Amino acid sequence: MGRGRVQLKRIENKINRQVTFSKRRSGLLKKAHEISVHCDAEVALIVFSTKGKLFEYSSDPCMEKILERYERYSYAERQLVASDQPLTENWTLEHAKLKARLEVLQKNQRVCLLFCRNFMGQDLEGLSIKELQNLEHQLESALKHIRSRKNQLMYESISELHKKDKALQEQNNTLAKKIKEKEKALAQQAQLERLGDEVDLTSSALVPQPLVTSNISNLKITKHRRLKYQSLIEVICMK
User: Fold this and answer.
1) What are residue 45's DSSP bridge partners?
2) Which of 66, 143, 162, 222 could join 44 in a cystine, given CB atoms 3.0 to 4.6 angstroms apart?
């Protein structure tokens, strides 16, 4: 006897409901992937759990392309249907389009926030083993890129420090060379000044000698005149 038709209704047991959701979700994602591969179709699947967790599949690497295509198609259909309607209804359609766009952006924001929380090790209860493995690989890859970038920056920083150190050493060598040249010039100038002083002393010692001889001659002449006058005075007194 074959199995009877299973009645579709909400599963009351929370654990059984979670297990069934996990199994059916995996099967649904698998079927979506199969139809996209076998039939070369563009497939976009979005599933929200009772806790609000998002599960999605897209045959295109970017689901937004498929969603935007759907929005354009549905908007064009609505435009054809509403071409004879009043202008107010056109504004209503525009509002619906903007609302759909806003929902897509909000969905992407929730996905990004969820990914960020998963990368931080939070909200991991609803992830399967495969999803946790994928998350682990992504973290390892991200850590590898972070370390590579860190090592690159450290190498560039060390290279820049070496260049600055070399430039400072060259500046120090240049300054030391200039100081030595300045000291040498000062020493030569001091030596020249000492030689000039010695020449001046020698000249001053040699110049007064004629003056001394002249003074001695003057003294001799004065003494001779004094003796001569004294002799005259004596002769006058004798008379």
Assistant:
1) 57
2) 66
Between CA 177 and CA 192 the distance in angstroms is: 23
Beta carbons of 81 and 65 less than 8 angstroms apart: no
DSSP strands (E only) in the chain = 44-48, 54-58
* Maximal CA-CA distance, the chain: 201
| Stated pTM of the model | 0.34
Read out DSSP for 24-44? HHHHHHHHHHHHHHHS----E
How many angstroms separate the CA atoms of 3 and 192, rounded? Answer: 125
Q: Over its length of 239 residues, how does the chain's per-residue pLDDT go in tens digits?
A: 455 566 778 888 888 888 888 888 888 889 988 998 888 888 888 888 888 888 888 888 777 888 888 887 776 666 655 555 555 666 777 888 888 888 888 888 887 777 777 777 777 777 788 878 887 888 888 888 899 999 999 999 999 999 999 999 999 999 999 999 989 888 888 888 777 766 666 655 554 444 444 444 555 555 555 666 566 566 555 55
58: β partners: 44
How far CA 153 is from CA of 109, 148, 158, in Å, comes to: 32, 9, 9
- Whole-number CA gyration radius for the chain: 56
Do 107 and 90 contact (CB within 8 A), yes or no?
A: no
